[in-house]
Amino acid sequence: MEIVDCKVPYFSQWESPEMTLAVLSEGASALHRDPLWRDSGAETIEEYARWAVNVCGMACLKMILAARGELHPILSLARSCTGYGGYVINEADASIKGLIYAPFVTFVRDRFGLAAETLTNIPAAGIPEVLSEGRFFIASVSSAIRWPDREPPSKGGHLVLVTAASRESVRFHNPSGHDRENQADVVMPLATFDRFFANRGIAVSF
Fold this sequence. Notes:
Strand order of the largest sheet: 3-8-4-5-6-7
Shape: globular
Radius of gyration: 16 Å
Oligomer: single chain
Order of helices and strands: HHHHEEHEHEEEEHE
Largest sheet: 6 strands, antiparallel
């Protein structure tokens, strides 16, 4: 399969995509400077900053929905997904756990009519077959995938949207890429992707 031009719109998990390096160096507090935070659907800047570091999965969903012509604020998606159990909020320490795959699958089926399936123990070489069925693949990878020349400290913990794959390479949108080159339509050798890939994710189709 040849990697062809992508038609899936790109969205960052922050409203201003160029905020990534500031978030990496300063933490979520850097997002208090995001001038576009209201576009997220958050009621306050504090709510936005708290959630934005946890919504890579919602960014992937926002991109899938945008590919069929729907645009949803990312925090609206997160709130709805939380209602299904896709995120668990600990009010004691303000932590957010998620994305939890099984409730997410139910959420996107009920709210958007999407077919979704949790996949585990899938090798990177199996991704082209997943996509051959007309699906997207929300893949669990290390967030260090933004630096493909480095060795990741671990696999998983971050979600990217794989839009195409062949036996040699994959193409994906990274919600927390730090520059244009590693944000949208990133094409990476399959063997390189495998170093970051946790062998699990969610297949989604219209």
